[in-house]
Model the fold of this input.
Amino acid sequence: MQQVTEPELTARQAAILRGVVEAYVATGQPVGSRTLVERAGLDVSTSTVRADLAELESRGLLTHPHTSAGRIPTERGYRYYADRLLERLDPQPEGFPLDLTTARSEVDAALQATTEMLSELTRLLALVSAPPLGTATVRHVEVLLLQPQAVMVVVITSTGSVTKRVYRFADPVDPMLADWAAAYLNDQVGGLELGSNVLRRRLDDPGLGPRERAFLSTVSALFDQARAAEQQGLYVGGTAGLLEDLRGKELDSYQRLVEVLEKRAALLEVVSQALDPRKPFVRMGPELEHPAMRDLALVGASYGLTTRTLGAVTLLGPVRMDYEKAIRSVRAAAHELSRFVEEIYEDN
Done:
């Protein structure tokens, strides 16, 4: 993507641009010089403000509807504003109003609760990606003999996901074989990463007897299913609130977004592409590299362990959004999630 040179502004011009962005986000109405002087507390005349507004417009940071003398930010103006916010972040994120201890060791529950709280706080679309493929491990395996020829196998992962399947055999299954399989899988497979070569070797150990190997061969596909389930981890919340707040041409953006929501894989890809493990990020319009999101912005922060990133906490909405609140919210949520998953993965 071609980089656009960022304009150099005087302190007053930067303050005026900030005032336009914040007033327009709050009201949805074009912002005039008199409103700026009153709202931003600028100690200059309205004529001076009008001159600076014209200069900001000439630089492509502001524009004005033909029916109004007031200005509104352009995408470039929003970009400049968001970049300044990212430059002056507080060293530590604020607290997040959510107690994840109620989720116990279930990452799924924690991610869902985080998504719902974020969308409630910001009235934007909250998207939280689950730990990526390969980070989930096998926490526990159950092998239950339901009937003489029916066995249910349950795989529980470190993220709290549960995958189960009932297998039906032509001949009765020896209860001792079912007990052996449960013990073997928890002892030899428990703690291993889904999809790892070690796990595959343990499920096809040539040192086992033919009966044991045949049983494990039958149920081994369940671990692939558990692995696939981990790959689809994207939690979405706040669609109704976002629709309620959108107005005018932004409704078209929402309708395009709904189309993307129906394709979760595409949405997860956008979130993953925007992930920056070092700091909060803001992506907007063409930076999202998806045609349905050209009028939208994504604000996010990564969460995870000290040694690796596990996912992202993001907010998606119109380019006209409260970036300061969005950045503050995703930072706090990501920090809280990081503390939560650190404990979970240490226990597993």
